Amino acid sequence: MRLKYLTADHIRRAVELFIAEAWPDLDSSRPRFNPGILAEATTAEEVFALFEQKPAGEGPQCARHSLRLGSSRYPFMKLVVQEYLVEEEYFFSVDTHDDLDVRPSQPDFKEWMALKAANRELKDRIEAAWQAAGLPTHEDLRELAQDLAAVGPKGADRGRRLLVVDDDSDVAQGLGALLESKGYEVELAHDGRQVLDRLDCDPLPDLVILDYAMPLLNGQEVLERMRAMPRTRNVPVLLATASTIDLAHMRRISGLLRKPYPAEVLFAMVGRLLEA
Description:
Order of helices and strands: HHEEEEHHEHEHEHEEH
Strand order of the largest sheet: 6-5-7-8-9
Number of strands: 9
Shape: globular
Number of domains: 2
Structural class: alpha/beta
CATH class of the largest domain: Alpha Beta
């Protein structure tokens, strides 16, 4: 949705639907955020003033506004309203905020994985409720990206193969369409195990665009396994994340994209890494 059409009522409705799904029993538990705080806002900008803002960084930036609403099982989930890929186009999404690096050797690993699975199911329900209510979600992002790729200028056949990895299938498909329009061959994967299975097959991709926060195996675990195998040790990896991560543990990445990013930044970085 274009920013000029996004209203305070859209955001209030998104908060209302989030709380209805995340806090189904309001008699016994309450969200930490009081939605009544938003009642007097008359514009989206006034609502965003109450949200957390994405820290400023270098280079072109996309706006990201987040509000921690939590759930009855996990207090850290967030509603996110962000500009993504296309300037001035905003989309609603849920950040489960459960990307802690809990390893199988740790005692609560099974419980943590069960919680992450439940969070993912809740995220899907909330975003489906938003879509049904006519609010812009990543499904709209995918359709917009595919439309732009279909009508925009076509890139030359570059003969380079990209593996695009994102646990959000709509985002992955949107990215794939935009990159294909630039002349790249694109394959998609949605979790770490799919990535490793694909990398067992020929031909290897020329570049992996790897999401950090994924189910089953996160980006760090995928990277560790890639670098441990002679076959994939030198495959370039462009890591994409909205999380705060310790880059000391990610030394073998070729580049880093901070989500949300404009499409032009993605194209420029992909081009540079492939040339290198």
